[in-house]
């Protein structure tokens, strides 16, 4: 078994002006594809070929740096493409809204925490909304790490994530990461986040 590059549910132009088409095309066909190719190479002929990407992530500490970095890159981008959509979708509601209010006090507080985590992550990495036992948390991870990994400081199931590697925004925003992070808010597919929240 080998992992495959997913098709996107929208065109590369569909997220403009928030994320430009050239960035989307390179990000999907070059960066994401490279993580998948390198992951497949790194697990070829090993027992990991029989495991799901989630299983590989939760036990990643015993595997090579290549599996950690490229497996994370594969998993993280699969999530990223799905939790954004052209025009986004309505604000969190129902049980997800209740959980956000319980964990952060308000959607506004959650948004501020998420933006701060994304903007202050030094160098390359990700910011996350993480489902833990009975609550939600915001975290960030370096490189291609994620909250599923047994090496993560804040562990749980990621239900929303933003890629803050420069390749995700530099063509359009150059050094202005906060502008990209704020624009991301217009794209969040809350229906998909809610689906992941409900598991
Ligand atoms: Mn990326």
Describe the protein's topology.
Layout: H1 21-43, H2 53-58, H3 65-83, H4 94-104, H5 107-120, E1 125-131, E2 136-142, E3 157-163, H6 170-173, H7 177-184, H8 190-198
Antiparallel strand pairs: 1-2, 1-3
The protein binds manganese (III) ion.
In short:
The chain has 199 residues and is mainly alpha-helical.
Describe this structure in words.
- The chain is mainly α.
- It has one domain: 3-Layer(bab) Sandwich (minor pseudopilin epsh fold).
- 47% of the residues lie in helices and 11% in strands.
- The protein contains eight helices and three strands, in the order H-H-H-H-H-E-E-E-H-H-H.
- It has helices at residues 21-43, 53-58, 65-83, 94-104, 107-120, 170-173, 177-184, 190-198, and strands spanning 125-131, 136-142, 157-163.
- Strands 2-1-3 form a three-stranded antiparallel beta sheet.
- Manganese (III) ion is lined by residues 27, 31, 77, 163, 165, 167-168.
């Amino acid at each position: 078994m080998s992992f495959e590059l997913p098709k996107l549910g929208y065109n590369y132009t569909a997220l403009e002006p928030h994320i430009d088409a050239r960035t989307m095309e390179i990000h999907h066909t070059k960066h994401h594809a490279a993580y998948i190719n390198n992951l497949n190479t790194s697990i070829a002929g090993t027992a990991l070929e029989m495991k799901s990407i989630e299983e590989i992530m939760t036990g990643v500490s015993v595997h090579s740096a290549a599996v950690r970095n490229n497996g994370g890159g594969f998993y993280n981008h699969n999530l990223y493409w799905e939790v954004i959509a052209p025009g986004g979708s309505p604000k969190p509601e129902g049980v997800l809204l209740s959980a956000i209010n319980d964990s952060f006090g308000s959607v506004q507080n959650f948004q501020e925490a998420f933006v701060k985590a994304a903007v202050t992550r030094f160098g390359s990495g990700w910011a996350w909304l993480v489902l833990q036992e009975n609550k939600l948390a915001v975290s960030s991870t370096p490189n291609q790490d994620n909250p599923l990994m047994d090496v993560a400081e804040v562990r749980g199931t990621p239900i929303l994530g933003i890629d803050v590697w420069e390749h995700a925004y530099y063509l359009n925003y150059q050094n202005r990461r906060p502008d990209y992070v704020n624009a991301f808010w217009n794209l969040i597919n809350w229906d998909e986040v809610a689906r992941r929240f409900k598991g």
